[in-house]
Write a structure and sequence with these properties.
This protein has 345 residues and is an alpha+beta fold. The chain is built from eight helices and 15 strands. It is 27% helix and 27% strand. The strands form three sheets. Strands 1, 4, 7, 8, 9, 10, 11, 12, 13 and 15 form a ten-stranded antiparallel β-sheet that branches. The longest helix has 22 residues. InterPro entries: Bact_Kbp, LysM, LysM_dom_sf.
């Protein structure tokens, strides 16, 4: 019941979007693209606690390299390069109080700490979220749980509301830890893969990495990357923001792939991923496993980043099949693994 209903709803939504594209064709010259980052941020990261809030916090420590001061640098310019805004130089001052006697006194060769500690108000925890015994996670209030599929792409546990989030939870793999150990190298491989296989579909690729220390069941590391997915050159305004989140705890790896059109899915995925907790008990150490918890995604196409879910063929199959169903094109290839042909498998 859930499966069929969700498929019908998703097809109807996409059909409405395509009809809107056609009816508004004359306005596309002056209107911005339909799918851009939402102006309103969901679950924003703040670099100081809100004194007026009683909500618990998720604490994210940025995993960032130190910065070597160059000739002509100022804290304002360094902040602009690192954080996107010069006025955030105060974060550099706070992180380097042991060596900065004055914000105006920096010199070439000085090593500045650049990692910041961020806070996300855990506003959704009071609603219970998703409780699975061995693990749990927060879910945005008002969202519902279901199933989704399109062509050969499917997820058997999906959170759906302003966006769509598919979940993959499994025992932690050694390959995954080795893959993300050098996150900078990992980001380069992801970028190269997207450029070589999905150059026309993927743009605006960005990465994040956080450590979560001394947070009880929530302790672990969080890895994120997001991008814009261009569904078809025939419908240039049909673009979705996609975000992939990975959290590694002591025994579990939880992965989340989400997409939305005009909603901050990046903030949502960051929140859900960071809120994930494992509930390991020593008495279960001999037989602790989550591989049977029925949270899976497919297709799961292998790539160089061993142990990590590959979201690109998943999104390709999902959106291409939806588009073909709406437009009536490609019916002879329906369900024949179109994504395999695109990446040479």
């Amino acid at each position: 019941m859930v499966r069929g209903g969700c498929g019908y709803m998703e097809t109807r939504i996409l059909k409405q979007a395509l009809l809107c594209v056609c009816s508004m064709a004359l306005f596309m010259i002056v209107l911005p693209e339909m799918a851009v980052r939402a102006d309103e941020r969901e679950y924003p990261v703040s670099y100081k606690k809100n004194p007026d809030s009683d909500a618990p916090y998720i604490i994210l420590e940025e995993a960032a390299e130190d910065y070597t001061v160059l000739p002509g640098d100022s804290l304002w310019e360094i902040s602009r390069k690192l954080y996107g805004e010069g006025r955030l130089y105060v974060n550099l001052v706070d992180a380097n109080q042991d060596i900065l006697t004055s914000p105006n006194l920096i010199y070439p060769g000085m090593e500045l700490k650049t990692a910041r500690t961020g806070y996300i108000e855990r506003t959704q925890s009071k609603y219970g979220g998703v409780q699975m015994g061995e693990y749990s996670m927060d879910m945005p209030y008002g969202w519902r749980v279901g199933y989704m599929e399109s062509g050969e792409a499917w997820a058997n546990f999906v959170m759906r509301g302003d966006g769509v989030v598919g979940c993959l939870v499994q025992d932690k793999e050694r390959d995954t830890s080795r893959t993300v150990e050098d996150w900078e190298k990992c980001t380069q491989k992801i970028t190269k893969y997207a450029d070589e296989n999905y150059a026309t579909q993927v743009s605006d690729l960005g990465f994040e990495h956080y450590k979560m220390k001394n947070q009880g069941d929530g302790t672990g590391e969080v890895y994120l990357y997001s991008f814009l997915w261009h569904v078809s050159p025939d419908y240039p305004s049909l673009v979705f923001r996609v975000c992939m989140g990975l959290k590694l705890t002591d025994h579990i790896q939880a992965e989340f792939v989400g997409f939305a059109s005009d909603y901050d899915i990046q903030g949502c995925i960051r929140y859900i991923t960071a809120s994930f907790e494992e509930h390991f008990q020593e008495k279960d150490s001999g037989n602790f496993t989550v591989n049977g918890s029925n949270m899976s995604l497919a297709p799961n196409i292998s790539w160089e980043l061993s142990g990590m879910f590959n979201p690109f063929p998943f999104m390709d199959e999902y959106f291409t099949s939806k588009l073909e169903k709406v437009t009536g094109s490609g019916e002879e290839n329906e369900g024949k693994g179109k994504y395999k042909g695109r990446i040479g498998n």
